[in-house]
Amino acid sequence: MRQVTPRELTAVSGEQVPVPDPGRLTHLQFRRFAGCPICNLHLRSVVQRHDEIAAAGIREVVFFHSPAEELRSYDLPFALIADPGKQYYREFGVESGRRALGPRAWGAILRGSALTLSGRFRPPAAKQDNGRLGLPADFLVDPSGRILAEKHGEHAYDQWSVDELLAHARTAVRR
What we know:
By secondary structure, the chain is of the alpha/beta class. The protein has a single domain (7-174), classed as Glutaredoxin, CATH 3.40.30.10. It contains 6 helices and 7 strands, in the order βββααβαβααββα. It has helices at residues 37-48, 50-55, 68-71, 87-91, 106-117, 162-174; strands spanning 7-10, 16-19, 25-30, 58-64, 79-82, 137-141, 147-152. The strands form 2 sheets. A 5-stranded mixed β-sheet has the order 5-4-3-6-7. A two-stranded antiparallel ribbon has the order 1-2. The chain starts with 6 loop residues before the first strand and ends with a helix.
């Protein structure tokens, strides 16, 4: 199994975030860009069940390849990490590609865009320095830094659901 090198990251809130968390599992989510309608749709499901995720002993850490100033206005109950240079994306092998916006993502694109147009989600910046073709990825890391499970998305809305995350955590606890 691969290991995550221990480090302290600075969230856009200024909070110092240990990765891995020494007292619980860490779920590293790699999203696309600030205001991404697809990411907003997914993160809404994580926010709605955040108490359940925390009760399962999981800390959420969410990366975006956007600058911190574009992320600071988000009011989310977990750490947001700005990685505009994509240092962590490269380290974890998180990719970009045209397949991000393939047919399997279209439903999420339409739902997320409708919620953005209705004013429920903040729209993205007009220009994305790192493009709009990012793919999501999820990693579940134990307190020692061992990656217990990972998923690299095949398209922009291909990530673990909250139920899948919780199932991975239950499997980890039984080990």
